[in-house]
Write the structure tokens for this entry.
Amino acid sequence: MHDLTFAFVGAGGDGAVTAGDIMAGVCASEGLHVIKTEAYGPQIRGGESSATVRVSSKPVYAQADAVDVLVVFSWADFARFQNEVLLATDAVIFHESADAPPDEMSSRTCHAVPFAALAREAGAPASKNVIAVGLLTARYGLPLELTRHAISRRFAKKEAAVIEANLRAFDRGVIQEETLPQTGKEQLEYTSSEPRLLMSGNEASAFAAIHAGCRFFAGYPITPSSEILHFLSEWLPKIGGSSLQTEDELAAIGAIIGASFAGVKSMTATSGPGLALMAELLGLSSIAEVPAVIVNVQRGGPSTGIPTKSEQSDLFHAVYASHGDTPRVVIACSDVESSFHATVDAFNMAEEYQVPVIVLSDQSIAQRRETINASVLQHEVRERRMATPDDLHEYRRYRDTPDGVSPMSVPGMSGGMYQTNGLEHDEQGRPNASFNVHEAMNAKRYRKLDAIAERYPLFDRFGAKRPEVGILCWGSSIGVVREAIAHMGVEDRVGVFAPIMISPLPTHDLQSFIDSCGSLLVVEVSYAAQFTQHLRTQVDLPRAKTTVHSRSGGKTLAASEVEAELRTLLTNVSLEVLA
Amino acid sequence: MHDLTFAFVGAGGDGAVTAGDIMAGVCASEGLHVIKTEAYGPQIRGGESSATVRVSSKPVYAQADAVDVLVVFSWADFARFQNEVLLATDAVIFHESADAPPDEMSSRTCHAVPFAALAREAGAPASKNVIAVGLLTARYGLPLELTRHAISRRFAKKEAAVIEANLRAFDRGVIQEETLPQTGKEQLEYTSSEPRLLMSGNEASAFAAIHAGCRFFAGYPITPSSEILHFLSEWLPKIGGSSLQTEDELAAIGAIIGASFAGVKSMTATSGPGLALMAELLGLSSIAEVPAVIVNVQRGGPSTGIPTKSEQSDLFHAVYASHGDTPRVVIACSDVESSFHATVDAFNMAEEYQVPVIVLSDQSIAQRRETINASVLQHEVRERRMATPDDLHEYRRYRDTPDGVSPMSVPGMSGGMYQTNGLEHDEQGRPNASFNVHEAMNAKRYRKLDAIAERYPLFDRFGAKRPEVGILCWGSSIGVVREAIAHMGVEDRVGVFAPIMISPLPTHDLQSFIDSCGSLLVVEVSYAAQFTQHLRTQVDLPRAKTTVHSRSGGKTLAASEVEAELRTLLTNVSLEVLA
Amino acid sequence: MTASPYSPTDYKTDLKPVWCPGCGDFAVLNSVYRALSDLHIEPHQTAIISGIGCSSRLPGYVETYGFNSLHGRALPLATGMKLAAPNLTVLAVGGDGDGLAIGGNHFMHAARRNVDIAYFMMDNEIYGLTKGQAAPTTPSGDKTKSTIYGNPEVSVDPCALAISLGASWVGRGFSGDVKGTTELMKLAISHHGFAFLNIISPCVTWRGDHQTKELRAKLAAIPADHDRADRTAALRFTSEPEHLMTTGVLYETQRPTLIDEMMEIRDKAIGQAPPPGREEILRVFAPAM
Amino acid sequence: MTASPYSPTDYKTDLKPVWCPGCGDFAVLNSVYRALSDLHIEPHQTAIISGIGCSSRLPGYVETYGFNSLHGRALPLATGMKLAAPNLTVLAVGGDGDGLAIGGNHFMHAARRNVDIAYFMMDNEIYGLTKGQAAPTTPSGDKTKSTIYGNPEVSVDPCALAISLGASWVGRGFSGDVKGTTELMKLAISHHGFAFLNIISPCVTWRGDHQTKELRAKLAAIPADHDRADRTAALRFTSEPEHLMTTGVLYETQRPTLIDEMMEIRDKAIGQAPPPGREEILRVFAPAM
Ligand SMILES: Cc1ncc(C[n+]2csc(CCOP(=O)(O)OP(=O)(O)O)c2C)c(N)n1
Ligand SMILES: Cc1ncc(C[n+]2csc(CCOP(=O)(O)OP(=O)(O)O)c2C)c(N)n1
Ligand code: SF4
Ligand code: SF4
Ligand SMILES: [Mg+2]
Ligand SMILES: [Mg+2]
């Protein structure tokens, strides 16, 4: 086996999530590719939980549709994760022997393991999960010593006795494995290599901010974006920056506009409800041309919706919210690595073009942990176009220029003083209500988007050159689509175009891709098909040859959903060919 | 002459606006059709001002492009209104003789009138404007007695001496008229009929709310919508309702959601910046399915923009704002009368379908005063679908129904208790994070929009049946387009389709109109062409045969702009025909 | 006291609380059940509105009309509800972050307007639902997820704030003391005007059990001889360090409520005259002739 | 006092104020020019941030860095600016509606955090720019465009509120008294922490000339022997009817400011150690082995 997905499911206190952490850590330091996700029940804490760890010797782009190896501490809890934990047909199950499998499991390979009893024996009654880790480590050929070490590190803060007990539990699990029937194909085949980092999308965005030179962060906690606030409030003070937890999201974006006006690269992070509250100040950043970066981690909507689950339904608000004609940039993240690059690009665009930039991430990539190599966390950093002494001579803050960007002065620059506002204004920034100035300034502000579209026509394009079926998708759906195509082995018949720039869209490349495809499939996780509708505003998407796979969030997009659509479309194509 | 536009321009204290009021009132009570607008300089108060009064014996749909009769108390101030007060080529000008006309007026018919001196003579030095009214009343054949009466009414609150002086001033103006050269074509030809009411769009919306049964209003002042707050805070208490000026717009929409939840028809009114702040609570109204009516009077944007001038650029925010998939209805007003009907329809839809409804008006129609007959201010009023005793038996607040509407209980109904929220929820309203429920509830909520689109496929359609050129426009642009077509006399070659329902759009009729047109012209007042882009999400608008006339607000859309586009398009058509 | 037509359990919904085992909010919920029962409150004549947070889940567990609205927005909704249906018993509940951070402005204006509702703030000195960031009530210096170097800000005493903002009834309770809290809730609900009850309700998950112990230590009942009408004295019991956890009724006064004002305005508007009809209203638009 | 490098007129921009003839804000603007000049303030080291309103137009008329932002949002912008550039002199200005209605929550938290800025509230007891609706400061009973039956709400005293919310310097001035207001502005700007100055600035257009007269009548300078450190005494000068228009410095205290806290946090975070490089930060993500 080159690609295995483990899952642990249990009640609060069973330590399912810890087990997942340990396995993920071990595999990452073996140089394997790992994607780890967690799921919780409605209870705020201490309720049922599950951890899913995909491990592979080759790069992986999404969590797997199904689980190959399942550890169940309690079947009742397993039942609560029907949408999160789906079993592969040949899945192997290790369950608490005290808890007999339900009938629907009768056809499956179930190994009863007395996790509780063994843990008690080992003198670590709370460590059923460590027993399980030992068992799986042995059975799937993961390095025993390394894992033992990981366990002692894990409990390092506890007293020696606790560590001892857990190591005994681990060894007990290893021994237990031998007592279980072999099926032969258990070993995970890989050659260990350089350890990889384990990072979440939120952490990648936060690290990207530091990389890009962000030295001020203001934010208000909100799931699933709070990790960005946590990370930056720890690290910014260490590098001469600062972070402020504001009273609400209005204050958060207000504070970064103020800080950015003062010349410091600034960012805020939020999720849908917070982004909704920022609509008016987004417009201020746009008209006053003050750089601002807003990371928005999408969750299930509308309204409070489903805070802990993923959806791609903040696109409309990100692209179209705020009254008036309000230019802004929207860029998407599709996985952990791209969360880093998109965030640095966001700063580059915001600073160079003096526009607000919204980075759209979503819960599924923001909170999953993925392996990544430090070496890929590199990206060019660009700076604000500051006013030169020449510019400052009879300085006009909003001087109309070919690309719409006016050199900017910041407090502290003598001779750079200007008074700005959210009113329509002339080149000096003076309030002006005449049509001519308004039209000229709208043109100036929108011209910056043309320049950005030129410089940043960002998109992912892979698969067939002249696709029988062309897939259009964005964000976290891209990885799933990639997995689906690979799984079906139709790289030569199916092509994918996924804009990274959501607004302005890479219209030209997008249209030629569309025109080059036999038929089209749009894949997105939004009931209202926001991505599809947005595309239509900019390109012609022939309704006759387009299929739209759009549905609500609340469960992860599965490769199988895409495969099903592709099978139909590809057979239709074949049929046409025959006809 | 059947159609004349008068304008008065002066400094603060010259009484230009009062003169306009008096003339508009007299003409309205003569049963003429009147549209009156005002414009002010940047100064908060006491600065230059202008009043424009269009008077016609036939219905009029917009203010005229140009002024036929101009009264200038000060040329300096006139210069400040270049965008607002455009002169017809054959315009007749009456100016303060103490203030000589600038050179560019040399070619025009200018009558010097010693307004100031005459006013002093009459013993009413502050009443230059009344002199002017007397002069115009005499010259253009308006009823002298009626106007005298109007003037005494106007100053009724002042002491007798003041009234006397102003009547003297009026008579002095009448006499002065005889001293001025005649040109023959001055008389306004009309036969007087029933007096008409004079109403602004804001007043029409406020009155509509009362008509529709609204008994609670909450709002925060903002130009150009505050008149709605003023009117309802005066009248609601008289009819057993109440009005609350809140601390901000978040509280305003929050309060109406609360009041509506309690069973009372409720409304708020605002302009762009306030609508921007309401984005999050809009989503709450949508997911909790609590009826809410939000009147948004558009002004120049983005951000604070140009608060006193009109634009059609809040469409994006109204239709697409708020995170997640958030169904809402957006309906447009195109003039004063339609402000009444759209607002009543908004209540009908909000109440029957339990959705938030945004009424999009704009400054140009909300603040202009138009003549209207009381008889047209009638509109069917529909009620909320309340829970019946049957429904209350094992009541499910969000029962899934064919049209998506679930009978609603309100506090006070015993057995109707339910606990709702902004989280995704099941039929009972219980928080639920599962995909199946989320998908079903999204479908239920969006199904209501299908039902609404069925029941309210509202649009204006006029002009040619099979148009050589088809015009697509909305809101305040409709009247201007109508005037342009009439002025060119091309009703048989040009057809117009103007959706009143902006979202959901009357897609079917819209598409067949588009398909039936030789070429298409979109007319809108938005730099980013928001209406055009929005149309593209729902219908196919062939780029090849479509011309988009979209520009910033800040000056009123002129019929001449539309006529210029039409001339080009119609000749192209003719050429094609020849070719 | 005559027997109530409703027992506390009659107010229970069949929804299981999502709260962590040991959360102080369970006890608050019990006090709500008892207070409603003791006051013979008609479930269908009652509405409970909350914002967002662990504590704001409470309305889902009470069989009255309920609305778990948006973060910080409970009070605007409650105000609109009360104005629309003055006979309704309207309760607002929520967390310290909900009411003092994002909802602070509504708190200020609801208190000033003396809206006739009771507002229970479940104060755990932390953001619970979002997993442990500092709230305006978090003591200075405390380490939280968002203040790992210690909370730099001075913490707010919700009662001091409420008194300053003009609340006409202000009290403090401790969730652990169900009986005492119940009595305070009954007084708050019965008060004519804006009644603010700060309920110390420990968060075992993000503040740890030690919080409960520490709080208990600080708790002290307000002296029997305290004059509730004395604003300055009341403020002393909220501002001086040793009094920070004084429970009981701290302040009480009577002044016109928002509903009183609404009635007075209607009276000024038409008094006993019949409401104007369509024609009368339209007359406003007839050109003044 | 050494001669200032800048005369008051050096701070004038060439933009003509939009204010009505006779508006109190003209005098406030003059006081700003004088205060900046007297304090030798470097124009390019200064930023003035406002919200929206007649009064909020002020930054456009002062030759420093200026930002006429959004209604109610001056303080968040000012806070971010100060944190980003601690050496900047940051002033926030605006109206009573801007700061107390829509901006109330930011006022509360900026005061609590003791942000190192001076905040001048130009208080005309009305919404001027929107043509005369009631503000939180409008006296009860007054008829305005939005309260034609008389304002039902009790009005807020901005100074009382500021003291309650934790402002470390609170004063009140009258725009008509340019000299006095200038001195108060100088003290406010020089204060280390959040300094709130309420400036009574009549609106001749929507409150009429009578307002100015009435206000003048109520004005009284605070007694010389008033102890600024005495919070209770200060509150008395803002709460008791006869003192509602007491001008002067009402309250002053010293406590750590937001910038002090920021510096302390940086110190706790690394002290004198060199800032961490990329590798050190990335080490956080290395699997714990
Ligand atoms: C507009 C918005 N911002 C942020 C959040 C995230 N959020 C949910 S609850 C909460 C604070 C919870 O603290 P508190 O109000 O004290 O309630 P508790 O959970 O402690 O009972 C936050 C920040 C949200 N739901 N909406
Ligand atoms: C979000 C938003 N809501 C409402 C308005 C309209 N508005 C502009 S200024 C203002 C209040 C003005 O009063 P104040 O702040 O006291 O300033 P003043 O004009 O009296 O100096 C309002 C409500 C706005 N610009 N933005
Ligand atoms: S997190 Fe804290 S407040 Fe929330 S339920 Fe758990 S214990 Fe209660
Ligand atoms: S309206 Fe009032 S506050 Fe505004 S400028 Fe005029 S006088 Fe000053
Ligand atoms: Mg809390
Ligand atoms: Mg004011």
Remarks:
- Chain C touches chain B through 58 residues (CB under 8 Å).
- The mean pLDDT of chain C is 95.
